[in-house]
Amino acid sequence: MKEFVLIFRVNGNSDVKPSPEQMQERMNWMAGIAAQNKLVDKGNSLSPVSAKTVKPGNVVTDGPYTEIKEFIAGYIIVKTATIDEAVELAKANPIFKTGGNIEVREVIKRD
Amino acid sequence: MAAQGNSYRELLPHLFRLEYSKMTAVLCRHFGLQHIEVAEDIASETFLRATEVWGIDGIPENPTAWLYTVAKNKTKDYLKHVTVFETQVKDKIKPDTLTTEEDFDFTQQAITDSQLAMIFAVCNPANVAEAQICLALQILCGFSLQEIADAFLTKTETIKKRLHRARVNLRNDTFQIRLPDEESIRSRLDAVLSTLYLLFNEGYFSRSNNHLVRKDLCSEAIRLAVVLTGSPLTNTTQVNALLALMCYQSSRLNARANDEGEVILFEQQDKSLWSQPLIDKGNYYLVNACSGNEISRYHLEAGIAYWHTTPADASKWQHILQLYNQLIIMAYSPVTALNRTFAFAKVYGNEKGIMEAEKLGLSGITYYHSLLGYLYADTNAEKAIAHYTQAIHLTKSASEKRTLTKEIERLRRAFPSPGSGCDQLVV
User: Locate the YCII-related domain: which residues (chain A) (predicted)?
Assistant: First the structure.
């Protein structure tokens, strides 16, 4: 089994609080992965507000690092045999309904 | 009160169950865990003496006090004997450890403290879970080899070996049999709770068809957990959550099995057989459990068990699913995964439930197939029967085979298919 980090990106303007239904959908998704015994770490959400970006030359800007209007909202770690299987798990996430996306990255363990 | 000469046969087993383990615990605290056999011998001899004397003289005024007086005297005799041996035969005195002067403290407080210490000594992570339960049953609950073998559906010889190995580990452990300090309590409380949890489950989901043994296992687990709530050191929110869970589950014990020992599914249970006093107790402990911020697996499971005691309304299964979601994210187990899927199907319908179930990869487990059989039953009788048949192949429980066979027969009657003669049922 390999481990993959699923990184959630959302649009900058979607920092409204998720509805109870959306929360329930997310929980169902994550619990569905856990029920297959493929959840390694339930990860964390990353605050969009308490965020700074540090750049070369002592430049510190407010807010998370953004590429266009997207920022990283959180992550979880799963274990699957292949990256394709991890991608299949990601596809069922409700994030796509609100214009977000998921980056899937294999974890390379340091010795 | 005048004692009836012949009723001691009924009273003694009851007293044995109640007092044997307490007596052993108090004595063991004195002798040390290395000499647990001495403590057990004295306790056994005390009860043997009771059968001899009570059979002739009748039951004494205060049977419990009688037992403790005899135990006290036997202990003094033993210590005197050992001291004589040590001084005259081995010519060596250890006045620190061996004294005949000491009066044995069989007060309520001493018993509670000793039992608490004994629980912590027996629930020893050095032993595998199954061995811990066997030890707990023998030492903490006073079960006989035969009774333990019945509970595990195993030969007494196997249990004997298992207990022997476990006792060697117990003696080699450095754990001191006194009231543990805060530090060791913290480090071992998890192991204690999981042993009590397993002990309870062994009764609740027992492989044994003996209904009485099963009830005993459950009530013993509750009794020991109540001992834990008796000390401020161990009266944690987790303990209360576990107690709440056990009370809620126990409230359905009488409704869960029919006279033949077959399990009656939740939805078909006669709710008038549920015990309201136990549900009330569960509520009491659940309120205590929620006094802190901590959420353990016992909290989640107690929450689920609570919802099962409430009448069905629109939101009930939503709540249960949310709790199962948290539980499966906290700790994976196949049973939790399958129970969560059942709740998922209750909320989102059988079709979505089937999709969720088929992802689980648990085709080697009976419950996986009986769950899919249930989910398919309304829409695809053929598939339902195939899964039920698979479940019958996998289960070792005779009563479960009967229950599943009945379900297949019901489906065959409801959906007769022209080619149904070909799939022979092997039971």
Answer: 17-108
Residue A111 included in any domain: no
Residue A15 lies in a domain: yes
Domain map (residue ranges) of chain B? 1-106, 108-234, 236-310, 317-418
Q: Does B359 touch chain A (CB under 8 A)?
A: yes
Q: Does domain B317-418 have CATH number 1.25.40.10?
A: yes
**CB under 8 Å to B110, separation ≥6 — which residues?**
B26
Measured CA to CA in angstroms, residue B5 lies from B9, B11, B54, B58, B412 at distances of 9, 11, 7, 4, 60
Give whole-number Cα distances, B392 to B345, B380, B400, B426, in Å: 23, 18, 8, 8
Nearest CB among A24, A31, A37 relative to B340 is that of: A31
Identify whether A13 is part of a domain: yes
Q: How many domains does chain A have?
A: 1
- Provide the CATH number for the domain around residue A23: 3.30.70.1060
ipTM rounded to 2 decimals = 0.88
Q: Which residues from chain B sit within 8 angstroms of residue A37, using beta carbons? A: 332, 337, 361
Backbone angles phi, psi at B345, to 5 degrees: -65, -35
Percent of chain B with pLDDT over 90: 28
> What CA–CA distance (Å, rounded) separates B139 from B29?
13
CA distance A13 to chain B (A): 29
Please give the residue of chain B at the shortest CA–CA distance from A26. Answer: B325
A5 phi, psi to nearest 5 deg: -90, 130
Q: Is B26 left (phi over 0), alpha (psi -120 to 50) or beta?
A: alpha
pLDDT per residue as tens digits for the range B189-239: 888 888 888 888 878 876 666 666 677 788 888 988 998 898 888 899 999
Tokens standing for residue B123? 């629930």
Whether A73 contacts chain B with CB within 8 A: no
Contact check, Cβ <8 Å, A31/B332: no
Cβ contacts of B301 within 8 Å, gap of 6 or more: B241, B245, B327
Structural domain boundaries, residue A18: 2-106
Sort strands A2-11 and A59-62 into parallel, antiparallel or unpaired.
unpaired
Tally C-beta pairs within 8 A across A and B. 41
What pTM value is reported for the model? 0.78
Q: Is residue A47 part of a domain?
A: yes
Instruction: Calculate ∠ Cα B12-B18-B23, nearest 5°.
Output: 100
Asked whether the beta carbons of residue A34 and residue B344 sit closer than 8 angstroms, the reply is no
